[in-house]
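This section describes the prediction task in plain terms. A model, or a person checking by hand, is given the sequence of a single protein chain and must write out its three-dimensional structure as a string of tokens. No templates, partner chains or ligands are provided. The sample shown here is typical of the held-out split.
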Amino acid sequence: QQNMTVPLDKLIENIRYIKDESVKVSVYKALVKNVHKLELSKKDFKSIFKIINRIENRRLRVKCITDLSTLSIKKGIYVELSTDIIAKIEESIYLIDGISNQIDTSFYIYGKFLKFDKNAASKFKDIAIKLRNENTINNQYVVDYLVHSISLSIRSLYILAEFKLDDQDCFDHVVNNIQKIPSIIMQAKLFARLASAYQKALNIEKAKLIIESHLMPLLIPPLGQISTEYNLCLSAALPILALYKTSLFTEYLDKLSKKNKILKDRTIIHTINYYYRNCLIDDTYESIKNQKYSMDFSDLKDIIYIISLLSDDAATLYQIKELLEAITSSKKNKKISN
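The expected answer:
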């Protein structure tokens, strides 16, 4: 097995040239996986730790720090696990989204640390067991089942709301079930879908209630830290916020990490499609030839503004083409005026 010939400082410099966090994820994984091929000093390890600490995906960051810590002992750079590193990892576990992810990550750390520090390893094993015992919904398969069941309930509410047959008990039941899901990301997606049901059923007051009481409280970053998990919550909520209040959409779009232009453009396109399509957010949608649109002037005006927020030129041109088709089709089906 040959050592890597690229100097570490050159490698770090090249990583910094990659601007988008979603692209960097695979680079971080490759760096940690292959770093054992490098001849590294204590200073080099500190430089790598500095890069790893910038990872926005909390679960990936914890795993990379864990792997790098054990490697530094294997290579003889350090003689034992740093108490600061152990404390940082423990603190970070509770910021990972989803109880099942916290449990799995804790057991992962336990397995990695066992050869080097049995006391530290036991600490994370205890954390995993405690999390599992304190949370009744601690299995990802159960979470997936509940999410699909709630999503189906939301679809039923949507159909009932269209005919004004929905009732408060059904609504409260869905809200309570969403709040039981041990994942902020999944709660954001489900509350966005619930708000979508009422937006598309033209029950504006109910949609407003969901957005203000349930969705927006999830859009406050814990400890003020921006993370991949927070960005995914924003991405789920933004199409709903756009239909609710364009100024709010702009405010929260700006909160998306500056290192996530790809996610930002993807979210903008998702939002535009939500305007066009008469279905729930995240529903599977098959476009047809000569698609018919029936758009209001205010919606078309919003779409023009939202298109202007795209950073990718090719995506912008494509969305302008789609907009022109929507305007032409809408003019045939209804009178467009302000």
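For orientation: The chain has a mean pLDDT of 91.
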